[in-house]
Specification:
heterotrimer, A alpha/beta (418), B alpha+beta (174), C alpha+beta (530), A: 418 residues, Rossmann fold, Ubiquitin-like (UB roll), de novo design (two linked rop proteins), 4-stranded mixed beta sheet, 12% strand, B: 5-stranded mixed beta sheet
């Protein structure tokens, strides 16, 4: 029986844990910060680098490396911005942290700010997450009262402020440069790179943008050391990660797991198998933009590299499961409608291509499909792939291509002459 | 244009950013909340003045984000998620049912101004689908029966315009 | 210098220069829409995708790169013509045309539309799009341009123009996804004075000039390089005409003067060139109080007789010119007075002006000095002062003969009345203005689009105007009229062309030292002395 490995959720899973400052401190909270304040910022960055923690927002970029890219001695302020714009369909892990153990996240954030020399942290929370924002603001207020935040962070000479910045409904703002534009009070459109945020990010200052979970992991990395964190995972995929499990499973939810446990076990052990005793039809392994897996493909370790091998991605560790009764054509149409709705519209292939794809799929849903239209759909989405400024175009094209590849019969059933 | 209370919040917000322009999104949120849930050209102009940004920029920003509205909203704003996980768990059925029950299409407000129904994209609570946000509160694992019971209750409600608070003003300005 | 290779052609680049910019500078074309050298780089049209087969380190780039935003590296090898790039362009073209109305037959941009051009060059020629297209209505967005958003390809050049170039911020990008549009705030009309440039930089027919709307197909226009004579900036332009009618003035790139821009007032100044109603079509002389038409021979003969009869002395003659006259004309006017009457009484109304300060370069294109050749008049030693006191001094003595070039000072000025007392007033001009009422002789000259000549702008740059259209049959170039006057009054002047005059004046006058007409060229050149 697969068990959770509790690191980030060690408090959350404790019965009666309230998530406020008192209860967090009772569990030994803010000891990592204490430890960190005795180190130099460079030491912290090198520990994080050594831990080999990879970004949990979806791209899996090594966090320590990202931090070490930060431009130094620019005469401008540096920023560490937290990406809590959890928008990838299927993902709901950051919300859990913010709702249930905000201080563990804030502690990691304070350490990060100290390491990068950031004196004002901004947490970009998606606008719909009002309950999470409330909880987080309460925790921030507690920190100000306790002197953890403010002109001298916990008695150190390091002033630190924190502000929650609410988004306003745009999936694309999860892309880090779009997030920065949105944070600056602009339309959340991804920027062209270079310059990279580490050189010119928020208001043109050196900036690192990290996911809530990644930042929370920093707390445990500093607490327990880089080695301990590495040991929790597989080589090149260190630590635990929060897996969002949803769809047709008996026990959906967020689970904290070691890297590299079996995907099948996650669904059948932790998830309690498929609802109503139905048969599995497919698994979307890393949020809706990742290529779908067939039931016979899921007996693999769940980590970044293993999923690459089956031509899919772990993305934001969001597993969506659907059963044999699911109409994949309708499901795909719904997904593509989402990407069309959320495209910022600046790039030609994404703006026109996502809309066109959704129109073709609508024909299928209305049983007006044809072999020519299927080819066209493949061509259109194939042409979006790799041609756009940010990954949203790819995120739309990848599921389309994989659904067509893996469920060709289902599409044929929607041909007008079928 | 802001109430004294609202203006206080705005001032606090503006003080939290290196430049005033950065505060545009939260200021628009607050403006929308003061104006019963939607923005007007006058409010856009006011926000532009407060944040010291050009008018066209404000309109560009406001029209980019789906949470900014330009038509009056109902007292209860029902946001039904029909994205992948919720749809797998019956989100679309809930939306269809609500359309039927309230006799409006998604994206519209009932004639009595009590309900606005909206189909929304993923709300980030995928394990708890189907999810519906009423004003600002998440309602999870909803069934059609529970939805009906909630509508029954809200339809009878005589409360004033329910306050929608932007929860980003605390003691943190110290 | 570091070098990269574009389809095996070596291109040297400066640090900070992007691949596309370096390629264009070196004369290689990579198709693009959203890129414009004056605007920030957004890399969104995806038309300039290129294949980087070697990033300079032996490895290829993982995917096609936008050349507009890519930093070149020494030894980088880029292909722009291979199958991969061809296919990518074809698809971008197809995507761009998915919602484009293809209303080229009624679109003013047709013929100079990059969507047409690239579609022809790089497109596949067919589309599988079978759904209805986005539809918006026409919008009237300002004094100078119209907006037809159906044609928009969302390059956002217009938005960036009002943000980055004029700083007026009237334009924005609204909505998102395939509903993305460009427009003004709550549909308000634009107020900036440079709207025409938005039509210029719009790669399609989304923003078009009102003045030109539905007037002529672009391919019928013949273009002549010239400069705008609306003010002392002297923006470089092309005069575009068909069948001897000027249809529009377009800015011509000159980084030293106007960059890529010109103002709207300058553009509409073409109206005066097409004005046939008030045009002086033939030489005229006053006979018993009324102006009657005459031939050039008759008129010169009459002038000669009259001047003889009046026995004009050195101090009894005066010439007043406006500063729309070219350097060559001013030179001959001086020569006329000097050679024939030994007089130096050549005046112009000098008016001090101030350049309004602005952080935006484009604002400095508009000056309050609406005389295109003030600096030229000064350089040529034409006399003038702010309150015209010197001129008044001269006129207070008995003036028998006055030459008036153009329309220097109107009725409201004292000068007008003083000059009116002269026994013989000879006016050279193009339209029947206030001076025509008092003129004893009216000689039909040419407008700036009908003649050749040089002007000196406010920054002491010598620039050329060129003849784009033909003057009316009996009108002549002003310099020729002046030369013929000199000849008919018994002195020598044998210039064959404006270039000869310029070369002659450049050797005579110290300010122009060493300059030749050739040196001035299409882009002008600075005065050596300054």
């Amino acid at each position: 029986m697969l068990q959770e490995t509790l690191v980030l959720f060690k408090n959350v899973r404790k019965p009666g844990y309230k998530g406020n400052l008192a209860s967090y401190k009772a569990e030994g909270g803010y000891s990592a910060l204490k430890k960190a304040l005795k180190m130099t910022p460079e030491e912290i960055v090198s520990i994080v680098k050594e831990s080999n923690v990879r970004g949990r927002g979806g791209a899996g970029f090594p966090t320590g490396l990202k931090w070490s890219f930060m431009a130094k001695n620019t005469g401008k302020p540096s920023y560490l911005i937290v990406n809590a714009d959890e928008g990838e369909p299927g993902t709901f892990k950051d919300r859990e942290i913010m709702l249930k153990d905000p201080h563990m996240f804030l502690e990691g954030y304070m350490i990060g700010c100290y390491a990068l020399g950031c004196h004002h942290g901004y947490i970009y929370v998606r606008g719909e997450f009002v309950p999470a924002m409330k909880q987080l603001q309460k925790a921030i207020d507690e920190c100000y009262e306790a002197g953890l935040l403010g002109p001298s962070m916990w008695g150190s000479k390091f002033p630190l402020d924190m502000t929650i910045h609410p988004g306003a409904g745009a999936y694309v703002c999860g892309e880090e440069t779009a997030l920065l534009d949105s944070l600056e009070g602009k339309r959340g459109q991804p920027r062209t790179k270079p310059p990279f945020p580490a050189v010119a990010g928020f208001n043109g200052c050196p900036t690192s943008v990290n996911n809530v979970e990644t930042i929370t992991a920093v707390t445990s990395i500093i607490n327990d050391g880089a080695e301990a964190f590495k040991e929790l995972g597989t080589p090149n995929n260190s630590g635990t990660h929060l897996v969002s499990l949803s769809g047709h499973v008996n026990k959906p939810g967020v689970y904290e797991l070691r890297m590299g446990v079996s995907l099948k076990d996650i669904i059948y052990d932790l998830g309690g198998g498929i609802k109503n005793g139905k048969k599995l039809k497919g698994v979307i392994p890393g949020g809706s933009s990742t290529p779908v897996l067939l039931p016979e493909e899921i007996d693999i370790p769940y980590d970044f590299d293993s999923l690459m091998k089956v031509k899919s991605m772990m993305g934001s560790s969001a597993i969506m499961v659907f059963d044999e009764d699911t109409d994949v054509v309708k499901l795909l149409h719904r997904m593509v409608r989402f990407y069309n709705h959320e495209s910022c519209g600046q790039c030609t292939p994404c703006r026109e291509g996502t809309h066109w794809s959704s129109m073709i799929l609508r024909d299928f849903v209305y049983k007006q499909g044809s072999a020519a239209k299927l080819d066209r759909l493949k061509r259109v989405s194939g042409n979006i792939l790799g041609a756009t400024l940010c990954a949203l175009g790819d995120a739309c094209a990848m599921p389309i291509l994989s659904f067509i590849e893996k469920y060709p019969e289902e599409f044929r059933a929607y041909f007008a002459d079928a | 244009m802001f109430s004294p209370e609202g203006q206080k919040k705005v001032n606090h917000l503006l003080s939290r950013y290196p430049v005033k322009a950065n505060a545009l999104l939260p200021v628009l949120h607050l403006a929308q909340k003061e104006n019963k849930g939607y923005l007007t050209p006058e409010w856009l102009e006011h926000a532009a003045k407060l944040c010291e940004v050009p008018l066209a920029h404000v309109e560009g920003v406001a029209t980019f984000y789906t949470m900014f509205k330009f038509r009056p909203l109902g007292k209860y704003h029902l946001q039904v998620c029909t994205n992948v996980s919720c749809t797998l768990c019956g989100g679309s059925e809930i939306l269809e049912h609500l359309e039927e029950r309230l006799n409006v299409h998604a994206g519209h407000t009932t004639e009595d101004g009590q309900f606005s129904l909206e189909e929304v994209e993923c709300l980030g609570a995928c394990g708890y689908g189907p999810v519906v946000i009423v004003n600002e509160d998440y309602h999870e694992h909803l069934t059609i029966e529970e939805m009906d019971a909630m509508i029954d209750k809200l339809a009878k409600s005589t409360e004033e315009w329910p306050e929608r608070i932007l929860p980003i003003t605390g003691a943190s300005s110290s | 210098m570091p070098t990269f290779y574009l389809d095996d052609n070596p291109i040297e680049f400066e640090p900070g220069e992007k691949v596309l910019a370096a390629a264009l500078r070196s004369g290689f074309h990579i198709p693009h829409y959203c890129y414009h050298p004056a605007l920030s780089i957004v890399a969104t049209c995806r038309m300039c995708l290129v294949d980087v087969v070697d990033m300079g380190n032996g490895r290829p780039a993982p995917k096609l790169m936008t050349s507009c935003s890519m930093d070149p590296a020494d030894g980088m090898k880029i292909e722009t013509k291979n199958e991969k790039v061809k296919e990518a362009r074809e698809l971008v073209m197809e995507f761009l045309l998915v919602n484009h109305p293809l209303d080229c037959p009624i679109c003013d941009q047709a013929g100079e539309c990059t969507l047409q051009d690239f579609s022809f060059e790089y497109g596949s020629g067919s589309s599988e799009m079978e759904y209805s297209k986005r539809v918006y209505g026409w919008r009237d967005i300002g004094t100078f341009v119209m907006l037809e958003r159906n044609r928009c390809i969302h390059c956002t050049r217009c938005h960036r123009f009002t943000t980055e170039v004029t700083g007026t911020h009237e334009f924005g990008t609204f909505n998102r996804s395939h509903q993305l549009t460009v427009d003004t705030f709550t549909d308000r009309p634009m107020t900036n004075k440079f709207q025409g440039n938005m039509a210029d930089i719009c790669p399609v027919g989304c923003i078009t000039e009102r003045e030109f709307r539905f007037k002529r197909r672009a391919w019928k226009l013949q273009k002549t390089n010239s400069i705008c004579t609306h003010c002392s900036t002297g923006c470089n332009i092309t005069v575009e005409q068909d069948q001897n009618t000027v249809f529009r003035l377009k800015p011509r790139e000159n980084q030293e003067v106007n960059q890529w821009w010109m103002c709207d007032d300058g553009r509409v100044s073409l109206r005066q060139f097409n004005n046939k109603k008030n045009r002086i079509m033939q030489p005229m002389g006053r006979v018993q109080g009324t102006l009657v038409k005459a031939s050039w021979e008759q008129i010169y003969e009459a002038i000669k007789d009259k001047v003889k009869q009046l026995a004009v002395k050195k101090d009894e003659v005066v010439a007043i010119t406006d500063t729309h006259a070219s350097n060559e004309e001013l030179f001959l006017l001086k020569k006329l007075l000097h050679d024939v009457f030994s007089s130096e009484h050549v005046f112009f109304p000098l008016r001090l002006w101030a350049q309004p300060d602005s952080p935006n370069f484009i604002d400095t294109l508009i000056t309050t000095d609406k005389s295109p050749n003030t600096a030229g008049a000064i350089a040529l030693g034409i006399k003038g002062n702010e309150d015209d006191s010197a001129l008044k001094q001269v006129l207070s003595e008995k003036t028998k003969l006055a030459f008036v070039l153009g329309n220097p000072l109107g009725k409201e000025s004292e000068i007008y009345d003083l000059v009116s007392k002269a026994d013989l007033i000879i006016c050279i001009g193009t339209v029947l203005n206030e001076w025509a009422e008092r003129a004893d002789v009216l000689l039909p000259g040419s407008t700036p689009v009908e003649k050749e000549g040089t002007f000196i702008n406010k920054n002491h740059r010598v620039q050329k105007i060129n003849a784009a259209v033909k003057a009316p049959r009996h009108a002549k170039a002003d310099w020729l009229i002046l030369q013929e006057l000199i000849q008919s009054l018994g002195k020598q002047s044998t210039f064959q062309s404006t270039s000869e005059i310029f070369n002659s004046l450049a050797t005579t006058l110290e300010t122009f030292q060493g300059l030749t007409f050739e040196d001035v060229g299409d882009l002008g050149c600075s005065l050596p002395a300054t």
